[in-house]
Structures are given as C-alpha cells and as structure tokens.
C-alpha cells in the first residue's frame, strides 16, 4: 500500500521499524537509512523472514540536505519518517519540500551548537520577544507552515509520547471529557532501574540539555520561567509508586497553549532519582554538558559529545532495565457547567517491551507513537496541508491505534491533583 523512508536506526527507530513491520498491509515497503549503514543492515537481517514488509537499506548523512534529496528521489517514498536527531529536522523538512513528500518526526528541532553566534543572536531575540529561554521549541518548524501548505504536503511534528501522545490525550479530553479545560499537568514517570550509577534513557545530548535548561510553564497567558530543577513535587504513580518529580520546560506546552482554548495553566513534570541529579550537577559544574568546542591536545572536541561516548548507549539498556513507566495528563475544567477532574495515562513495562522488541520502555513509548503517527498519515485519517502538532488532529483513531499496538490508556475521574 505504501513505501516509507525511515531516517534513523537508533533505539527509538528500531522500535518504530519493528512496529511498522507488524502492520505490513500498510507499510508494504520500507527503506531504513542512517549515517551508519551497517546498523540498518543488521536490523534488516534481524527482521528477515519475520514480516512481509519489503526492507531495503541506505546510507545517508541527514545533516546534508542534498544527500537526503538524492535518497528521496531515488527511493520515491510516500512518507519520510524522521527518527534521527532533532538537529536534523530542518534539513530533512527542506528535502521533503524539494521532493514533494510528506514528513513526520518525533521531536522538535533544536540547533546542535547552542553557543553558535548566529544561532545565539536569533535565540536571544526570541527570549526578549517571548519572555522565556527555551533552547528547544516549535518556532523553527512552524516557520515552514506556509511552504508545506503551498506544496500541498503534511508535516506532522512530535509524534512520540511527550510530545505526541500527551497532546493526543489533551485533544481527547477536550473532545470527550470537558467543555472547558482550565489546567493541564503532564506527568512523565520512569520507574525503571538499569543498574548503572548514571546513564540516560535516550540520547544523552538531548536528555542532559533538556534537564539542565531553565524550567518554564504557561500561566494566565504568559510564560513563567524558573531556575532549572527548582520546583519539586512528589506523586504516587499507579503501578510505580511514589516518586520525586521536577518541573521542566517541554515543547508541547507551547503548542497546547496555542491550541487548547482558554487554558489557564500548563505544566510539565518529570521524575528523577537523587543519584541522577547528583551526577548531572557534577558534570555540569565541570563543563561536561557544554556544547562549545574546546581544544584538547590539538584536537577539537565538544564536551557533551565526548560525554555521550563515555556513557552507556541507551539502546543497550533494554536487557537490564526493570520496572515501569507511567506517563499521562491530569486536567481540571468544567463539563455541563460543573467542575471536573480527569487523568488519562499509560503504564508501560520495561521487561515486556524487551520481550517484544528488545528495547526498554523509553524507546518503546516513543517508537510506537511514531509508527501510529505514520499510520494516520498513510491511511488518510490525518490529512491536511501544512505543519501540525498531534493535538490538531482527531485523537480517536490515534489512541485506538496506540491501544492496538502496545500503548493502551487508563483513566481516573478522581485523580490526586498536583499542588
């Protein structure tokens, strides 16, 4: 039925590709492309004789638009699934526009070197104009909206879990549970244990930059910015237990503030253990989280990239991670003139994920929504020209697909609220 080019072959991409192969009646042909073709070949060999999806592989440097254009023109896909690094979102979007192909990703664009002078000038102007200092946000990709509209193409941004499923939860709540939504708290809990003193569950560069950045939330029509990790709450998560969680800036807050009418406050919380925070603070204090290149014995290195090489590869954590994740949204608002609260969430088991696709739950909870987002586009359930985030589409078929392919949701109508 369709031919799909998937760029990326890391932990999340591996899950997404395996899930695509479970829906071979839609994903009839797939090309897996990465800078390291041997990783693509190994995954293709692993899936050989396990699916009727026809799998090919290719080498591509997604930092180079001309290479992506050449690959798209050669393979002629119906959709490009960008599951590479968010640094590469814009080059791949440019290539899709040049070739007339629909686009989707799992995480919004962010520049690789946040200390680059040209980027810094743009960034500082945005901080002044918009009142907060997020290193990563949607504005870069939203700027492509008219280009995709004029080309008659769809760009789906952030079809992971958060962003992605959490935004679908918000659209579902607005459609089915509320007349008006007043507050949204997004809670991301990883109760897993991989046994290492310190490791990140997804790309270390992205993870550590996200956590060390200033926190912010949306309240009464404006951004409130706080020092990194300065607001802490405790919450008792279903099937996980009590955990400390911290308020972070997260990109879906931006789009939800724009697309959920009348919402008064949106916050994002993520759980962290004390060992993780202690290690991260030490690394930050000695400059290991810096993106500014330094000269070491005649060689230029980027500290955070060097740190990434030292840390365990997140793709290797699957066989040793035990426990569960719990990610969802708590709402307050009104229905039929009466106050209402509602909590919609998913619980995912690390060990069960590994049994199915040899992955821990962090990659699973991003890879499955990536496949489901692609499924929505390829089957025409989500089909309008422009650049969109998940909550701008009908949530019902998406949540149905998530439940069918491994991420069913749970509900509570009397949740404990976060103070």
What does this structure look like?
By secondary structure, this protein is α/β, with parallel strands linked by helices. It has a domain of 189 residues: Dihydrodipicolinate Reductase, domain 2 (2-Layer Sandwich), CATH 3.30.360. It is built from 15 helices and 18 strands. Strands 7, 8, 9, 10, 11, 12, 15, 16 and 18 form a 9-stranded mixed sheet that branches. It has a 7-stranded parallel sheet with strand order 3-2-1-4-5-6-17, sandwiched between helices. Strands 13-14 form a two-stranded antiparallel ribbon. Helix 1 crosses helix 14, helix 3 packs across helix 4 and helix 14 packs across helix 15. The chain is globular. 47% of the residues are buried.
Tell me the CATH superfamily of the domain at 165-353.
Dihydrodipicolinate Reductase, domain 2
Text of the CATH class of the domain at 165-353: Alpha Beta
β-strand amount: 25-35%
Can you tell me the CATH architecture of the domain at 165-353? Answer: 2-Layer Sandwich
User: Residue ranges: pLDDT <50 for 5 or more in a row?
Assistant: none
- Beta strands, count: 18
Largest β sheet strand count, sense and barrel closure = 9 strands, mixed
Computed CA radius of gyration, to the nearest angstrom: 20 Å
User: From the helix content, strand content and strand pairing, which structural class follows?
Assistant: alpha/beta
* Shape descriptor: globular
Reported by name, the CATH topology of the domain at 165-353 is Dihydrodipicolinate Reductase, domain 2
Distance between the termini: 49 Å
Binned, the helix content reads 25-40%
* Quaternary: single chain
Specify the number of helices: 15
Average pLDDT over all residues: 91
